[in-house]
Amino acid sequence: MITNTTLTCAEAGSGGGDGGGPVVAGGNGDQERLARAGLSRVIEPGDLAALKVFDGLPAAEIWDRLQQNAPGLERWSTRLADANPHRDLERAATAGARFVIPGDDEWPDQVEILEEAGQLTRRAGVPFGLWVRGQANLRQSLTRAVSVVGARACSSYGEHVATELSAGLADAGVTVVSGGAFGIDAAAHRGALAVPGTTIAVLACGVDVSYPKRNSALFSRVAEAGLVVAELPPGCSPTKLRFLARNRLIAAATQGTVVIEAAIRSGALNTAGWAEQCGRAVLAVPGPVTSRMSAGSHLLVRERNAVLATNVADIIEAISPYGTGLTQLPRAPQSLADTLDPDLQRTLDAVPVHHPAPATRIAVTAGLDLPTTQQSLEALTALTLITQTPTGYHLSPPPT
Amino acid sequence: MITNTTLTCAEAGSGGGDGGGPVVAGGNGDQERLARAGLSRVIEPGDLAALKVFDGLPAAEIWDRLQQNAPGLERWSTRLADANPHRDLERAATAGARFVIPGDDEWPDQVEILEEAGQLTRRAGVPFGLWVRGQANLRQSLTRAVSVVGARACSSYGEHVATELSAGLADAGVTVVSGGAFGIDAAAHRGALAVPGTTIAVLACGVDVSYPKRNSALFSRVAEAGLVVAELPPGCSPTKLRFLARNRLIAAATQGTVVIEAAIRSGALNTAGWAEQCGRAVLAVPGPVTSRMSAGSHLLVRERNAVLATNVADIIEAISPYGTGLTQLPRAPQSLADTLDPDLQRTLDAVPVHHPAPATRIAVTAGLDLPTTQQSLEALTALTLITQTPTGYHLSPPPT
């Protein structure tokens, strides 16, 4: 751990590394933004070593120290030569993107839960900032948001359900957040776009990089109607570890994570794990037990206490404050016959469908005494459930 | 309530109603059996009024009082004229059936839980006896038994899963109990028969009555390989209330109830409710959320805490004593790359697939200092995960 010294950014700017350029480019806000942009280039998302060394230090100070090649920071030296936050900010602007940092109006405070989650697992940590492409306001878009994630190689069932649920969520004013991958992710974005509603793609690469390439038209539409967000600066490619780090962000930024089709080994289960650690709702959509694609969802319900989600209402209930947004339980339609008292039910059960039977016969069938049976037959006739004929009683034909 | 008098069965036999014939036909065992056979004819399964009036009285005494037309018992008088337990026992024998009563070797004690359940709901109560057709021993067959129930109008998915799970249960030595209806019930019986294993059909009519008629060949096969069981005496037809009463018996007789495909309004949910009240395991098999047939199963999991069952192991775990029969959790296959320490993972992530890159370039991509990167590259080369060439490193081709 390095101790908190009084190095200023100005000193760092004039005497620092050659790659960063002047870090002071206006007020403190710009200085902070430049430092954070630089850090987002140099330090990998969720870098455990960085979390340990820099824990609690202001971003500008971390940046200064890196610039000065302070001892013990060699680990991050190799990228410093390439780091140029000015250039990254310009590059972002060219791509129609901005860099949102803590303190900005648009900053979604809820991702700071990752500071706590970082004490539990590796690859946590709050992003230095978020690169954001699109017109929507990031913070506002995330005030009521659900992540919908799942298998890339999903089934048509999974794709259908992801599209329908996401459209329903968007229609209910909930932002649909996903990872922009093939399969469930793409279906989730498309479902929300179709409404039209707000959707956010959180990428494991730069916001100007289309990965996967075949989804580039989708990313353009997402950026038009919603937002494309990344922790990594422009131009960065995705890596396996970046996907995992990205998952923590999706989980932390939303009130709940819905898993639709996930194999046992799946990034969606990783996202669900992060959601759990962040105290967010974890939901899983069931599917056929004959489908390997639903095995992960079923595992979440059985072993990790995820809420079984079958429709939009289930999801909204799970992300709503306690006691609000309650789902309407499906109810069986009640027929008049269901509400009868036991003797009436037994008598009704004993009345023939077509061929009339006398009360004495019905009493034997029902196993009731004759007076009770006769009373019941009168009541059932009055309710028009049965019909009396000269030779006895039969069921009334069902209403047409 | 009538008080406990000292009327004997002999008196009842000589002076009682004309329909019953002599109730004493040998030792006390026969007397008790005749009384219970008579009661199973006169009193409807789960008759709440009977439970109240006769609570705690020995069966033989209840039968005596009915025969004597004691005041307050008019309710059950109409059927007395038709009741003839001798004839019913003979009729059962002709159909290859016997009447099993409490105290018999074959009596399954666990159904007596229904005496307690009767305090909670109507239509409970312990059966006076069970009419049993087939060679198997009822008690033994039910020492490890699961009821598999569900929709009549099931989907081919439901039918497939019911068959497979029941075959798996039967193969594991678990008796499959169901209700002999179309759909899931029939598939459950067939699955168990195919193994071959033991299956029991519990009917809402007499054991000599084939309802539904189209399942009569199935009932014959069930009676050959397992048992056909009913609370109602021979010749009785099913009624709506008898189906509900039958459900309590299926739930009480088994260690767990598995619901496969049940609409919101469904007899299977009624059985699940009884299983819950009897303290038995309740399990539900998920299905597509797009299928109305699985809505009841999902409701059980979401709102009534049923265990999500995806395979035979899940079911066996649920019915096994605590800590035994545990299911093997599905595990993702671990690759060598998963077990690497974070620096090795980051380095590996930064190594190109095909075109070799030098260590200096890989260090920048990985965001690690050069010495760490070089150490990691050596370790990864030793693990044969990467290959060194004169111009740098690339990933080793995957093993074939």
UniProtKB/TrEMBL annotation, chains A, B:
InterPro entries: DprA, DrpA_SLOG
Entry's Gene Ontology BP terms: DNA-mediated transformation
Record Pfam families: DNA_processg_A (PF02481)
Annotated region (Disordered), positions in chain: 1-29
Highest rank taxon of the organism: Bacteria
Biased composition (Gly residues): 13-29
Annotated Smf/DprA SLOG domain residues: 99-319
Family as reported in the entry's similarity comment: Belongs to the DprA/Smf family.
Protein name: DNA-protecting protein DprA
Source species of the chain: Kribbella jiaozuonensis
